[in-house]
Amino acid sequence: MNSQTIVITGNDRRRLGTMLDRAYTVAADPREYLHRFEAELEQAVAVDETEVPEDVVTMNSTVEILDLESEEREVYTLVYPERADASHGRISVLAPLGRAMLGRSAGEIVPVEVPAGRRWIKIEAVRFQPERSGQDEL
Fold first, then answer.
1. How far apart are CA 127 and CA 34, in angstroms?
2. pLDDT, tens digit (0-9, with 9 covering 90-100), for 42-72
3. Integer distance in angstroms from the first to the last C-alpha of the chain?
């Protein structure tokens, strides 16, 4: 795998596909970010939930990141849009930061496309991964 390849579980791929279908139907006009995210999912390597490496960010994982510019450490849980709440550290998979984290591994440095430009983060640690704890149906 190259550094651009992301790893997702089969369940996450299925659930994210359903989420995207719903997002397309409620959007007034299809948004470019939905198309980009769909393309990223199509390129992702899908693995069985029992085989996902423990350091990979899956849906509902809690992740410690380091902003390489500000040197701030932050902890987020990657969630579906309806559960997002930044004030409680729950970031939507459709947010730029959420998209950047999905399928990445601890130790990776990844770009985050934000309105102000490109920000670089390092995935410091996956503190909780549902598959590792046997809770992959969150």
1. 28
2. 999 999 999 999 999 999 999 999 999 999 9
3. 28
Q: Highest-confidence range of 7-11, 73-77, 128-132, by mean pLDDT?
A: 73-77
CA 76, CA 68: separation in Å to the nearest integer? 16
CA distance 132 to 43: 24
**Parallel/antiparallel/unpaired status of strands 117-128 and 109-114:** antiparallel
> How many CA atoms lie within 13 Å of 136's alpha carbon, on the beta-carbon side?
18
Distance CA(71)–CA(73), nearest Å, equals 7
Going 74 to 79 to 82 to 88, the CA torsion angle's sign is: negative
* Angle at the Cα of 117 from the Cα atoms of 16 and 109, rounded to 5 degrees: 65
pTM > 0.85: yes
Which tokens sit at 89? Answer: 């550290």
